[in-house]
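Appendix B, example 12.
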Amino acid sequence: MVRQYLAALFHGWIGKMSGPASVALAILPLVFPKLFAEHAMLVRATWVAAVVCFAVANYSAWRYERGRYESERAKGEAAPHMDINVVSVIPRGEANQILTDLFFNVYLILADPSEATVQNFSLELFNTAQSLTLPATEDISEWELVLPVGSYTRSVCNALTKHLTQRGDPTQGWVHFQLPQLKESAVTRCILRLKINCAHGTCYTNVPGTDAYPDANAKGIMMRKTRRA
C-alpha cells in the first residue's frame, strides 16, 4: 500500500508541476514584469509552486488510496461469494442400512472478496416434513479413502481449508459429518445442504440425498487410519 501511495504521490506531483504550475510560472512574468525582473523572484515562485503542488498531490494520493482501502474493507465485510462443487459424498454406516457418517469431497473457488476465513462447516438435511442441522467433525486427518484398485489403494484425505487467501484459486478437500444413526432411506429422501459459514455470511450448495448412496467400487470407502505402535 505504501508503494502505491508513493507512486501516486510522485506522478501527481510531476503532473501538477508540468501542468497548471508551469503555465502559471510562464504567465506571471508577463503579467508582473517588474516583480519578476530579478531571476531570484522566479526561483522563489518556482519553489512555492513546487511546495503547493506537493501538498495538493499528497492530499490527492492519500484520498485515492484511502478510497481504495475503504472499498476493499467494504468487500471484506460483505457476504462472500464462492463456487462450491461437491465431487462426491461417501457414506459410512453399520448393519441394517444405518448411516453414521457422511464425507464430502469438495472443490471450492473463492469469487469475492480477495480473501476469506471460514469459521466452520455445517450440513443441513431437510425435506418437506423436517430438517436437521449438523456441525462438521474436525477429524479428517484420522481417515483415509480406500479404493478397490488392484490390492486396494489408500489415499490421504486432506481437510478442506478454512483460509482462502486468493480469489479464483481453486482448493479441494474433505469435510466430515457424523450422523445420529439415520436410516439410509431417510437420508436419500432429503436434500443435503452443505454450508460454508464465514464471519460476514454463509455460502451453500444443495446436493440430492441420493448422492449419498454407498458404492465401494466407484467412490471407495472411508476407513479410519490404523494406529501403528
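Helices lie at 2-31, 39-77, 184-188. Residues 39-77 form the longest helix (39 residues).
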